[in-house]
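Weekly modeling sync, notes
Attendees: S.R. (lead), two postdocs, one rotation student

Agenda item 3: backlog of single-chain predictions. S.R. asked that every request posted to the team notebook include the full sequence so nobody has to chase files. The rotation student volunteered to paste the first one in as an example of the format we agreed on. Action items at the bottom.

Example entry:
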Amino acid sequence: MNRSKSASVVSLVLIALAGLINAVPAASPEGEFTFVQLSDIHWGFSGPTVNPDARGTLAKTIALINGLNPQPDFIVCTGDLTHTTDDRAERRRRMVELREQLKALKVKDIRFLPGEHDAALDTGATYREVFGPTHYAFDHQGVHFIVLDNVSSPLSSVDSAQLRWLVDDLSRLDKAKARVVVLTHRPLFDLYPDWDWWTQNGAKVTAALAPFKNVPVFYGHIHQNNDHAAGTVTEHAARGLMYPLPAPGSLPKKAPMPWDSTQPYRGLGFRQVKVSPTGYVLAEYAATELTPVVSVTAKKFEFTPSQITLKAGAPAIVELTSMDRQHGFNCPGLGVRTDVNPGLISRVRLTPKKPGTYPFHCDIFCGEGHGDMVGNIIVK
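Predicted structure, as returned to the notebook:
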């Protein structure tokens, strides 16, 4: 693994969650901002030995991002949004469901790009129906972002038409002054071609980027951190959100690493990037900090489960949905209350401070058994 020698340009740091959530945000200097990179969500994956919390990991991650202080300017999802399936209708359903899940993020500016799980089977047709173009550019606070598609082509490459588009887009920029950031799914260099960890014509892409100063490339695909520098182009892989993969070539076969019950969510996480006029800093968030999520179902005239156990001083999220009609969830002792509607997920975030038993109840009349619709949050 190659690392940049310019510490003033790139530094990899670990930031404690508690310090960020409790900090008072300061106004960012002009030209400084942050964005979050999520990668390899693999929505629709199922495999208890790999991730028994396959449907809950994303919700926990969203809660962690929503707790960042200050909030990022935008969020990028660098591919493999969904887990592959031959059923096109199911593939589309997973994409739509993921898009709905991400609406729980406080930050509403979300940029997408496909991974091979999203686009390889139909050259990106279903992805484009749900998320839009597979490659594009946008500008933010003086930085030019380029989103590349190196997965829709069956050759694991950036197709010729897109390459021409890239060269034309870059030709409009001042090579001495422009600040360029690239987002893609596969690495642009030959990390490990035997595992498809490369872009076949990646050298042509990096040659087009080479005239610009300090070009970071943020990608996913390999489900782990990896840094590679070549000239002015520095590439950074991100952890995934569903399962880690082994180090390049460390095992005879590439396969998801098994779940470790003693270290749940090990190897998973996301990244925050702080961009300034002088460079960028990467902050890696380990998913071991994920907030516990308790799922509760409401229906006449009960909550399931009706007993919830939480830890004093630890943040938690209660997710609620209804099986029949509108209900209410009200826990006066902990100061939380929300409507609970069929077909929707309502989330309440709480950090109980003192041990004890805190009753909750439905506060929207739902029939003769309404008074029996109660439960307890037990804080230990």
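Discussion: group reviewed the output briefly. Residues 1-27 have pLDDT under 50 and may be disordered.
Action items: rotation student to repeat for the remaining queue; S.R. to check formatting next week.
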